[in-house]
Amino acid sequence: MDRVSNDGIYNGMPANRLGTDGWRKPWSGGNGGSCVEAKKLNDGRVALRQSTDPDGQALIYTNHEITSFIMGAKAGEADFLL
Description:
Layout lengths: L35 E5 L5 E5 L8 E3 L1 H12 L8
Antiparallel strand pairs: 1-2, 2-3
């Protein structure tokens, strides 16, 4: 089980506990509405959830983790997923 931070936010928590405001679909496309939604948290962490299951689990990433992922994707390091 992931550790719960002092603010009660933890990896795998129900996304609806993070509220309804602030979620964005930066990777939305012509996929029938099934996309990843992201929310920047007050402390700089980022929460991700599946748009088709907004009450499901949220994945919580540190600013460093999400920055490393985005920079790596821009550099082509995730192209193997395509």
